[in-house]
Design goal:
Layout: E1 31-36, H1 43-50, E2 54-56, H2 88-101, E3 103-110, E4 115-123, E5 129-133, H3 141-146, E6 150-156, H4 160-174, H5 179-202, E7 206-208, H6 210-221
Parallel strand pairs: 1-5, 1-6, 2-5, 6-7
Antiparallel strand pairs: 3-4
């Protein structure tokens, strides 16, 4: 959980959730921090460390039988790293409903079968801040800003070789796809990682490593929003 009494300096020490915001007689609007970054960059683990409620944006992937799914150029593989494989409208609707009501129903997505296997209720109660994390989070920065629900937008970055190893180990452990597919995807993403980060930055997500991301999340939790300026 974030310690909002001081910005973290590379530490994941847990703080008291009562310090998330100052005491006020006025209702505090709920806002979202969008956490983007290449696949395997550590978004989920960072979100978990904060202690804030988390909306998993990867659960808004389209299903494998959707005719609008894109293919990797020159291949029969579905391009799950293209924003066109993801339902941005449904993700934004869920974020807005969480900000307005504190609860929403979200799909439960099985990456190994590329299908939605159910729905579940996400209830953040009166928490004034939550994290929405996923590889396409940067795609909705401008929409969340226009809807006045955005606290900050971040893009985790690191060494492409480290991201490659972390991503492959995770995907193999979880059996997300076949081994040949994961190797092809991993090699392609490693070569494209710097371009991926640059594009997400151009969409309004601030590129940073984990220590700076924790600091900005702590600032947002304390009410010091850094809503990205329109590009």
């Amino acid at each position: 959980m974030l310690d909002t009494n001081g910005l973290p300096r590379g530490s994941t020490a847990r703080g008291n959730g009562s310090h998330w915001c100052p005491v006020s007689s006025q209702p505090i609007p709920t806002r979202v921090v969008l956490l983007a970054g290449p696949s395997g960059s550590g978004k989920s683990s960072l979100a978990a460390v904060t202690g804030l409620p988390v909306l998993r944006l990867d659960d808004f992937y389209k299903e494998a039988d959707d005719p609008t799914l894109p293919l990797v150029d020159g291949s029969a593989d579905i391009d799950w790293d293209s924003p066109r494989s993801w339902d941005a409208d449904a993700a934004v609707a869920a974020i807005v409903e969480l900000c307005r009501t504190g609860r929403t129903d979200v799909p439960v997505y099985d990456l190994s079968t590329s299908s939605r296997v159910g729905r579940e209720r996400l209830d953040i109660e009166r928490t004034p801040l939550f994290v929405a994390e996923g590889i396409f989070a940067a795609e909705i920065v401008s929409r969340c800003r226009e809807l006045d629900v955005l606290a900050d937008a971040l893009c985790l970055r690191g060494r492409p070789s480290t991201t490659f190893r972390r991503r492959l180990a995770r995907d193999l452990r979880e059996g997300r796809k076949s081994v040949p597919f994961l190797l092809r995807r991993g090699w392609r993403l490693m070569r494209a990682e710097r371009a991926i980060v640059a594009r997400q930055a151009s969409l309004g997500a601030h590129p940073c490593a984990k220590p700076e991301a924790l600091g900005r999340l702590a600032a947002a939790a304390a009410g010091r929003h850094r809503t990205p300026a329109a590009s």
